[in-house]
Amino acid sequence: MLPRLLKRSFLNQKKAMIIMVVAVAVGTAVAASLLTVATEISSKVAVELRAFGANILVEPRLEGLAGVSGQARYLEESDLKKIKTVFWRHNILGFAPFLDGLVEMRSGENVRPVQAVGTWFEQKLQLPGEESAFVAGIVSVAPWWSIEGAWASHADSVVVGSALATELNLHVGDSVNLEGRAFQVSGLLTTGDREDEQVFMELATLQGLLGGEGRISRVQVSALTTPMDDFAYKNPKTMTRTEYEKWYCTGYVTSIAKQVEEVMTGSRARPVWNVAETEGKVLEKLRLAIYLLSVMALIASAIGVGTTMVTSLLRRVEEVGLMKALGADSMGIITLFLSEAVLIGVFGGTVGLLLSLWISKQVGLLVFGTELNQKALLFPLSMGVSLIIAILGALLPIARALHIKPAVVLKGVE
Question: Does some domain include residue 276?
Fold first, then answer.
């Protein structure tokens, strides 16, 4: 009996059923697409946020009297490749070493001490087990730095901070003298920070000027990380063995910093908190916005389905009244309308799933420049969302149907 009633209902209300299927499909497509974005947003947005700069700083560990006396300590350049051997090595997007030192700078009549920084601008490293070279240096940790001209590409060229260049009236192509050695200005750097008053050159060049071959002062590391939660802020020294393993094997900025510290001899690695915390807050707010939009899509679709079903019910009052007069109880009425809602949900969910595959693909290409991973969870998710929309939309019509009085309806009285 139920299959016949459902068949008759769908055939007699083709337009209404199509409208409800479309409403469910649209709601399902929007909600499923947004939830797909939510599952991928951590990795995709984290890559975009790396433009904020490095989120881990590695410095020499100062212990005992070394920290009191102010005696300089250095890291070893030979340890740099080890950064790409840690457990989370694939999350390391870039790193750049820096060596700091004061040098005497002569430009025309001007002679003054300046802060010189030796670094890698764009260094290609061939790592064991990797087919392609890994690009390290300034370009990998500070992509937002603005350069007029070009990075120093050889040992006799330097990059001058824009503020220092303005003070000394230097331009791209000019020559300067550092520690009695002539250099050509290949570019002018603007960062809006202290770098604007410094001079940058190849790491090996400054090591030679200062007599410190193989030494570096610090390393900036840019890594993809998992947003910090309450567990991430726990002190590893107070964790149980199980907790420590969980923390160590999760891509928190603190755990990645710990692993980098372990491979860099005599180092202390710490998160750059203003960057790390900003990233976490941005991701949390984006996720919240996506979830709210998903709920709004569900509600809007459910209202559309409910409105259409109520309109349809007004044309079926006599039918429902006759069913009750012939002995149909409340459970029978509920079963009929819920069965219609389930079929609408299945049809709408199938169409919505196909739409969400296309929508999420386009969102990935337009926003992130790459397709989003279509997870196996998407099918049951789409079906679940579509059934929720259809059933929510059926609640009001069911309530109205249960209050229909057969005697009044069959007499033709409203």
Answer: no
